[in-house]
């Protein structure tokens, strides 16, 4: 049984590319934990993460990075440590940042 109460950086990682259009990315399906988010390319819009299995931003808001978020990997890595039940969806706003998402099941 995986430890969903706390995880350092996550066992898995997914990239979400910077985008000029709004888009949703299904990162994981099933219960797990959003561990960390590192911003690779900052941009003028926010990105949010939701507990959802349908690939939409219609679930519970778990974590959100502001517009013009600081760049990680040698700079700032955001420590979320938030469990999700249905799945993990990244909701990218138009002109949102490029990020690496660390998560675990």
Brief descriptors of the model:
four-stranded antiparallel β-sheet; 105 residues; Jelly Rolls; mainly beta
Spatial strand sequence of the major β-sheet: 1-8-3-6
Query: What letter string, H or E per element, gives the SSE order?
Result: EEEEEEEE
Largest sheet: 4 strands, antiparallel
Termini separation (Å)?
Answer: 9 Å
CATH class: Mainly Beta
Question: What is CATH's topology name?
Answer: Jelly Rolls
Note the total helix count. Answer: 0
Uncertain stretches of 5 or more adjacent residues = 1-5
Strand % is over 45%
Rg (CA only): 12 Å
Structure commentary:
The chain is mainly β and 105 residues long. It has a single domain (12-104), classed as Jelly Rolls. Helices cover 0% and strands 51% of the residues. The protein is built from no helices and eight strands. It has strands spanning 12-16, 23-29, 32-41, 47-51, 60-65, 77-84, 87-92, 98-104. It has a four-stranded antiparallel β-sheet with strand order 1-8-3-6, with no helix packed on it. It is globular, with a radius of gyration of 12 Å. The protein starts with 11 loop residues before the first strand and ends with a strand. Mean pLDDT is 87; it is low at 1-5.
Write the layout of secondary structure elements.
Blueprint: E1 12-16, E2 23-29, E3 32-41, E4 47-51, E5 60-65, E6 77-84, E7 87-92, E8 98-104
Antiparallel strand pairs: 1-8, 2-7, 3-6, 3-8, 4-5, 4-7
In short:
This protein has strands at 12-16, 23-29, 32-41, 47-51, 60-65, 77-84, 87-92, 98-104. The protein has 105 residues and is mostly beta strands.
């Amino acid at each position: 049984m995986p430890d969903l109460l706390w995880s350092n950086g996550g066992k898995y990682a997914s990239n979400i590319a910077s985008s000029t259009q709004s888009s949703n990315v299904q990162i994981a399906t099933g219960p797990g934990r959003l561990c960390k988010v590192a911003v690779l390319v900052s941009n003028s819009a926010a990105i949010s993460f939701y507990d959802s299995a349908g690939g939409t931003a219609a679930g519970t808001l778990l974590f959100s990075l502001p517009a013009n978020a600081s760049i990680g990997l040698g700079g700032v890595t955001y420590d979320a440590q938030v469990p999700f039940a249905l799945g993990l969806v990244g909701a990218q706003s138009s002109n949102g940042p490029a990020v690496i998402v660390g998560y675990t099941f």
